[in-house]
Write a structure and sequence with these properties.
binds copper (II) ion; seven-stranded mixed sheet; about 30% strand; single chain; five-stranded mixed sheet; globular; mainly beta
């Protein structure tokens, strides 16, 4: 009996379906684009610096693993963590392995990973592998795919990575509480056979939002709208580490968002970039378009790439202006245009020493605190930024700086760019104003 072409195809399909990896891979045709190798093939566990250039998690870390019988074994420990968001602001959060957020899980397409999760929290939990194609029983939704992991228990997850890309992990039990307390992390799966130019610098940033009233030490998971600490990798500027790159290097930035209620339009200065992938897979080159701001919806990742050919200090931040303010920038009385002196005199009998701020905006708030003119409440941080090379930077929260230099060393992240005088904005001289006919 001879088989027709169609029969052969069917037979082949049936055979392929016998494998666990094929069942995962066939779950969604869309992930074919995220496969550089046959998902049925077996591989040695991918090695850092050999099979991939490790990702950098600013202010964070990568979860270590060991290899046992060709399986990469990881151990996540869910626990309470005293976490510093920015100088002066600490809170009791929930995270993994002593960190908020949890360390980045990094592996290679084709790796088999076994992830143990130990629960040292006072509440039950689970871990969901967001965007990773796994068998249903490994998906981590409490009550649906598994029983919750009770305090003191250790659960075992195991699956083959049949795709590459940028994904996330988070608690999927009492999500409102546990995600708001910090139980999130990034997952980076490198392609087994790179299908594009490799980045020289590969960064991972997770966005989240918190409600921490000045003077308190617990994030409030019940907050629904008014988040007052907005973070990259659980740090608010000036707590965020700069990203660095050498002139001409290809830079990849993987942006994940697991904020409770907000999407974040992330704007990078000095560059146009391409969005190269989502957590659904790589975007075909023909469908990529240049952009300067990428909207990262909550529950999604967006990866951007560009060549760092424009040296300088470049702001990168959420473009929602309340997301670059911290704590006291929220719920202010409107004083713009008010007579500050009259107001102070009126208040003084009841509250001696009151300082009236806000009659011309809040730009000077951080400066006043920096100069010691006023204090912030205990366990809080100024609503805006930090001192920069040219004055006070009036953005805090979800703000960081990309520092591109001809040569990068260990100190670059703390350095300021030395601009050429002819490229520096400055006070106009009287001669210049007269020459150009500008009246001020
Ligand atoms: Cu935002």
């Amino acid at each position: 009996m001879s088989l027709s072409r169609r029969d052969t195809f069917r037979l082949g399909g049936a055979l392929a379906l016998t494998g666990l990896a094929a069942r995962q891979a066939s779950a969604q045709n869309a992930i074919a684009a995220a496969q550089t190798v046959d998902p049925e093939a077996t591989f040695e566990p991918g090695k850092p610096e050999v099979d991939y250039r490790p990702v950098i998690t600013p202010n964070g870390a990568t979860l270590p693993f060991k290899v046992v019988d060709d399986v990469k074994v990881f151990h996540l420990i869910a626990e309470e963590v005293d976490h510093v968001f920015a100088p002066g602001l600490t809170a009791q959060c929930w995270g993994y392995n002593g960190r908020v957020h949890g360390p980045t899980i990094e592996a290679v397409e084709g790796d088999i990973v076994r992830i143990y999760v130990t629960n040292r929290l006072p509440a039950a939990t689970t871990v969901h592998w967001h965007g990773v194609i796994v068998p249903s029983g490994m998906d981590g939704v409490g009550g649906l795919n598994q029983a919750p992991i009770e305090p003191g228990e250790t659960y075992r997850y195991e699956f083959k990575l049949v795709q590459h890309g940028t994904f996330m992990y988070h608690s999927h039990h009492d999500e409102m509480t546990q995600m708001a307390m910090g139980m999130l992390g990034m997952i980076v799966v490198h392609p087994r056979a790179p299908n594009g130019p490799l980045p020289d610098r590969d960064y991972a940033l997770m966005m989240s939002e918190w409600s921490i009233e000045p003077g308190t030490r617990r994030p409030d998971p019940n907050e629904m709208t008014d988040f007052n600490v907005l973070t990259f990798n659980a740090r608010a500027y000036p707590g965020t580490d700069a990203l660095v790159a050498e002139t001409g290097e290809r830079v990849r930035i993987r942006l994940g968002n697991l904020s409770a209620m907000d999407h974040h339009p992330i704007h990078l200065h000095g560059y146009a970039f391409h969005v190269t992938e989502t957590d659904g897979g790589p975007i075909p080159e023909s469908a990529q378009h240049p952009d300067t701001t990428v909207l990262v919806p909550t529950g999604a990742t967006r990866t951007i790439e560009f060549v760092a050919d424009n040296p300088g200090d470049w702001a990168m931040h959420c473009h929602m202006t309340h997301h670059v303010m911290t704590q006291m920038g929220h719920d202010l009385d409107l004083l713009i245009g008010a007579d500050g002196d009259a107001l102070r005199e009126a208040i003084a009998p009841a509250l001696p020493g009151t300082m009236v701020m806000g009659t011309d905006g809040m730009g000077d708030h951080g400066k006043h605190i920096g100069m010691g003119h006023m204090a912030v409440p205990e366990n809080s941080t100024p609503m805006v930024g930090a001192r920069g090379p040219m004055g006070y930077i009036t953005m805090g929260g979800m703000f960081t700086i990309l520092k591109v230099r001809d040569a990068v060393d260990a100190d670059t992240g703390d350095s300021w760019y030395n601009e050429q005088p002819e490229n520096q904005a400055r006070l106009a001289t009287a001669t210049e104003l007269a020459k150009d006919g500008i009246e001020t």
